[in-house]
Amino acid sequence: MMATAEYQFQKTFVITEEMKNDFDTFGYIIVRGLLSRDEVEHIIKNIQDANYEEHTYGVADGEGKEAHIILWNHPGNDATGMLCRSEKIAGTCAKLLGGEVYHYHSKLMKKPPKIGGKHVWHQDYGYWYKNGCLKPDMMTVFIAIDECKRENGCLQILERSHKCGRIEHTLVAGQTGADMQRVQQIWDNNFPHKFVELNSGDALFFHCNLLHSSSENTSDKRRWALLCAYNRADNNPVIEHHHPKYTLLEKVADSAILECKSLDVTGKDFAELEKDKTSVATKVESN
């Protein structure tokens, strides 16, 4: 089954009551064409820079494959920073969550052709709960850099599963995964399983308790996606951990994405994922 709550990005794009209701009901909305082709190509130039590549880690899926991840804590002032601070992304999240948000972290998820590993069923709050975030007033924006289709490991979701609350999570291979008995019970009880197939530039805005996973990439096409995570300002974590506590997010106009020509990554605070207690990651050496 295909995903349900879809909208088309326009220059006059605003969050409507219908969009907010869909987000609350289904746990997500899809915005087609959120990024233009020029914006996607501009972002690719940034993330292919050596300053990103040297922070690549591999996360095993327990079946001999691994996905690659580059994670940073603060937006910074390059094009990816402008993207995460833009009104069409950060501003949309603030409206969907009903209050001021700050940038919790961003990451580039890369599934190389043929060898890109799966991600087990989980909730993002399954990780973030352990970081001292007391409420699930958090969300992620999954932005397709490449086409994300079934054959190269697109996201899969259990629609409306965010209504089931937080599920216990344990370490599965190198990842934190949800209790599969509970996941199966949810799957079997009218929480539709959907494939979220996206074209380059499309985005999925989803609640932190929405159950999701992705299969391995068996195709000859890579699958890159940029994920921006946000926390409500009044949900400041109560413990120190590897992601930021509340930090004022200075939003920018959408036009700042293409206007930004800087490749300076100063202040992004790339993560050393071997220190992350919610996953097991190993450094991938740059070519």
TrEMBL record:
Q: Name one Pfam family in it.
A: PhyH
Q: Please give the superkingdom of this protein's source.
A: Eukaryota
- Which cofactor(s) does the record list? Fe cation
Q: Extract the InterPro entries matched here.
A: Phytyl_CoA_dOase-like (IPR008775)
Q: What is this protein called?
A: Uncharacterized protein
Species, as recorded: Potamilus streckersoni
